From TrEMBL:
Compartment(s) of residence: Cell membrane
Membrane topology recorded in Swiss-Prot or TrEMBL: Multi-pass membrane protein
Positions of transmembrane segments: 48-69, 276-302, 333-354, 374-394, 424-448, 460-481, 502-524, 725-747, 779-802, 814-840
Record bears the keyword NAD: no
Domain ABC3 transporter permease C-terminal: 283-403, 729-837
Assigned keywords, A-Z: Cell membrane, Lipoprotein, Membrane, Transmembrane, Transmembrane helix
Pfam families (UniProt xref): FtsX (PF02687)
Name of the protein this chain belongs to: Outer membrane-specific lipoprotein transporter subunit LolE
């Protein structure tokens, strides 16, 4: 295209020569600009290092989040018990849910997909289909069921599946078991093993290195369900090709796993945790990208402000605006490339560190291998490059357009800051934060309102960052009077500086505002959300105590035995799971399905769920109590039937016997405990809620744990605490990143004032006065940043608190606010005073004469 443009209207040879000449001139200009850029960086080490650090940490955080996402997508789990299988077949754990979308012109209907939460049995006919696939030598059934041995919960399996683990000892006979070597049992001993609350004695036939219990095939067939098939290939068969043939043959009726994916069959919960990990990485990765752009823009802006005189002189000697832009663009590109290259390895290490912490909190499975390949690294590189380039172009735009005489005048003190672009994007950001706040108050309720909190704080942070010079002027005007009143001469100097240098001061106030605003919003959002969920959950229970099984569950007759104990007024089994409404279509149901709770009808009084109509005492057989909003969305009422799909994939028609008031925390449906328990992995209830005099229960059920009602709320609180720790961990990384920006900006800005310090000393101010002046300025910057950060956080916290707790004040101890404020003050003062002390070591005359 360029050559065609150059040759228009010219002889071919002359045109080609002209194009070659233009290309050579372009390359020469580029080389000159690169040399100028490198020389500029050499004399501006402070700005270079500050921008480098901001880009380095931003790229590392984004790469780490990318690694978490890749790990969740891969879900690589090296198989152990099924290592001898070339491919493993499991039931399809995905569930298809209808939507209200109309069929398109081809008759295609859009569906949503979710994941089943319980063990999903595999159809026995799949084994015959798999065995008929070319290349299959044999198919081994893996029958599994939960067991409790010596107080430890594990799983039982049929002995035939032990061949896949490489065990070749004598097979156990009916009534015999092979137990883990870690159990301390020896061959010939008798052991008590509980299966779904039923305790039976077995003879130990041997031990193995596996952590599971192997039963005789006939016993396993009686006690368990077929959950997987191990496929052994014929010699010389390619396992990947075999897995593809198996998948083509079985279609959507089953899932074929190969390679490291085979381990998912041994740890199905890891797949569910991986989905959470993907979502978590995506949310916080996007959050990190936005914060990175704001931090880099702020840091690069400070660097450009320090070079106003240099850019003005370049404009005065004839440098064109385009050349200025290219110089700054080249400089940002060089820094970004160096920073992202340096962040490649640390980003992977940071991702591994975050994954290990998430595994400790139970969010990620420790059996999953962490992976961070080139894709997340490239994303991190691209993000850092994009942030650097955007920040550079935005900062250079006005400098390159300014006329030389105006630029020289503005090099000393910058007064203009509000551009049309800044105003437009600032107004849009304010409107976004306001809209999200209105949605939180009017539409959201309970802890789910937290879904708008993250985007809202980003909107307000962006708005206040764009309007930082004006906001800083306003806050400093309020602080100027008390500063002069309480600090006398140093305060008067500091107050004058805050007035004259208000625009420059905004560049150091903004990072303090971002760090404190993010910290206040993230921490108090989590504490308020946890308190809202805890209150609602506690209010839904009326039990005095809870009986917790120590043998993997209670047999169905135990609840009647508990009810017959003298002093017990009510008893109810307690089962939890998740399911879906198969039909009719429920527009209220979310991607994760509907929370299901199983209770005993005779003990329904222990569940304080407001009933709109009907009665919970009718919960027996195939029945359900639905929230009113779900029933209304489906157009059903009491007496109607709906089809439920349970967590194990099984469907069953159930009759509606009651309608429940909607819950602000989560929508849940109530079912008979025995109906729901059949569709869970455990198969029975593991908790029984009781009320009345519970003093005799401990003696009657010695293998169970008796705890007060706080055991249920504490278990629920543990889940909330885990979620809180996740948010604190990843949000803490972002807050730490903004704190680094605070240090960066203040150090560079303070170090750049050496000439000013020298002039003050030459005009009569002694070293102590300069130090006190900077101390007052640092305190003013801290207060201004905290005030603006508080306003930023309140734009998120007030609407969220109204939605979650019906109060404008977020829940949480005051020491959180004081702690964050103290940390911000410590960082700000250290980043201000240390460079000041270093700068004052130079003789005043030398600093004034320095370039």
């Amino acid at each position: 295209m360029n050559q065609r443009f150059c040759t228009m209207g010219r002889a071919p040879s002359a045109a080609i020569a002209s194009c070659h000449k233009q290309s050579a001139e372009g390359l020469e200009r580029t080389a000159i600009m690169l040399r100028l850029t490198l020389r500029t960086l050499r004399y501006r080490k402070g700005g270079f290092v500050a921008t480098f650090i901001a880009l380095f940490f931003g790229a590392a955080i984004v790469m780490a989040c990318g690694g978490l996402m890749e790990t969740g997508i891969r879900t690589a789990i090296p198989p152990q018990r099924l290592a001898g299988a070339d491919a493993v077949i499991t039931a399809d754990r995905s569930v298809r849910m209808a939507t209200d979308a109309e069929p398109d012109e081809d008759g295609y209907i859009e569906y949503q997909y979710s994941t089943l939460t319980e063990d999903v049995p595999l159809d026995a006919g799949v084994a015959a289909k798999a065995a008929a696939v070319p290349g299959v030598a044999r198919v081994v059934q893996d029958i599994a069921f939960p067991v409790a041995l010596a107080g430890t919960t594990t799983t039982g399996h049929n002995w035939a599946s032990a061949t896949l683990a490489g065990l070749n000892q004598a097979a156990p006979q009916p009534g015999q078991v092979v137990v883990p070597r870690s159990s301390g049992k020896q061959a010939g001993e008798r052991v008590d093993i509980s299966v779904r609350g039923q305790v039976a004695q077995y003879t130990v036939a041997g031990t193995s290195t596996q952590s599971v219990v192997y039963f005789a095939d006939s016993d396993a067939q009686r006690l368990g369900r077929l959950l997987a098939l191990g496929v052994v290939a014929q010699p010389g068969t390619d396992s990947s090709a075999l897995a593809k043939r198996l998948a083509d043959s079985l279609g959507t009726s089953a899932t074929v796993l190969s390679g490291d994916d085979r381990g998912v069959a041994e740890h199905p919960e890891a797949g569910q945790q991986s989905e959470i990990l993907i979502t978590l990485a995506g949310v916080f990765g996007g959050f990190a990208v936005m914060v990175s752009m704001m931090v880099v823009a702020s840091t690069f802006g400070v660097s450009l402000q320090q070079r106003k005189r240099e850019i003005a002189l370049l404009r005065a000697i004839g440098t064109t605006p385009g050349q200025i832009r290219r110089m700054i663009f080249t400089e940002s590109l060089v820094i970004a490339v160096l920073a992202t290259a340096a962040a490649w390895v640390p980003g992977s290490l940071l991702g591994g560190f975050l994954f290990e912490r998430l595994a400790e909190y139970g969010v990620a499975s420790p059996v999953v291998q962490f992976h961070q390949g080139w894709i997340p690294s490239i994303v991190g590189v691209g993000t850092a490059l994009l942030a650097g380039v955007i920040a550079a172009l935005a900062g250079a735009r006005r400098a390159s357009r300014t006329r030389p005489t105006e630029a020289l005048a503005e090099a000393a003190v910058q007064r203009k800051w509000l551009t049309p672009t800044r105003m437009i994007f600032g107004i849009i950001s304010c409107a976004g934060g306001l809209a999200l706040g209105i949605i939180s108050v009017t539409v959201m309720s309970g802890p789910i309102a937290a879904s708008t909190a993250g985007p809202a704080v980003l909107c307000w942070a962006m708005a206040f960052t764009l309007f930082a010079p004006g906001a800083t002027k306003a806050v400093m005007a309020l602080l100027r009077v008390p500063i002069r009143a309480f600090t006398k001469v140093p305060g008067s100097l500091a107050a004058n500086n805050t007035k004259v240098r208000a625009v420059k001061l905004a560049s150091v106030v903004a990072p303090v505002m971002l760090a404190s605003g993010f910290a206040f919003a993230q921490i108090y959002t989590q504490t308020t959300s946890a308190e809202s969920a805890q209150r609602a959950y506690t209010e839904s229970l009326r039990a005095d105590a809870v009986l917790i099984s120590g043998t993997g569950g209670f047999s169905p007759d135990v609840v009647d035995t508990v009810r017959s104990v003298p002093g017990i007024t009510a008893a109810s089994e307690w089962v939890t799971s998740a399911g879906f409404v198969e039909s009719p279509y429920d527009s209220e149901i979310g991607d994760e399905g509907l929370t299901l709770q199983g209770i005993t009808a005779s003990g329904a009084s222990l569940t304080a769920v407001p009933v709109a109509s009907g009665s919970l005492t009718d919960l027996s057989g195939d029945t359900v109590a639905l929230p009113v909003n779900h029933a209304s969305a489906m157009g059903v009422t009491i007496g109607d039937k709906i089809t439920m799909r349970f967590g194990d994939g099984q469907t069953s028609p159930v009759r509606i016997v009651a309608l429940l008031e909607p819950n602000d925390v989560y929508d849940s449906a109530l079912l008979p405990a025995r109906l729901l328990a059949k569709h869970t992995s455990e198969g029975v209830a593991s908790q029984i809620m009781v009320s009345g005099d519970t003093s005799q229960l401990a003696a009657r059920f010695p293998t169970a744990q008796l705890a007060d009602r706080s055991a249920l709320t504490e278990a629920y609180a543990d889940g909330l605490e885990t979620q809180a720790m996740i948010n604190y961990l990843i949000a803490g990384m972002i807050i730490l990143y903004t704190a680094i920006s605070v240090i960066n900006t203040l150090v560079v800005e303070t170090a750049d004032r050496r000439r000013e310090f020298g002039l003050l000393q030459l005009s009569g101010a002694h070293r102590g006065q300069v130090l006190r002046m900077m101390g007052v300025e640092g305190a003013a910057i801290t207060l201004a940043g905290l005030i603006l950060g508080t306003i930023v956080s309140l734009g998120t916290l007030v609407p969220f608190s109204l939605a979650a707790l019906d109060t404008v004040v977020p829940y949480g101890p005051i020491w959180i606010y004081l702690g964050v404020s103290a940390a911000a003050a410590l960082l700000t003062m250290a980043a201000t005073m240390i460079p000041t002390v270093i700068a004052l070591r130079t003789r005043p005359a030398d600093t004034v004469s320095a370039p």
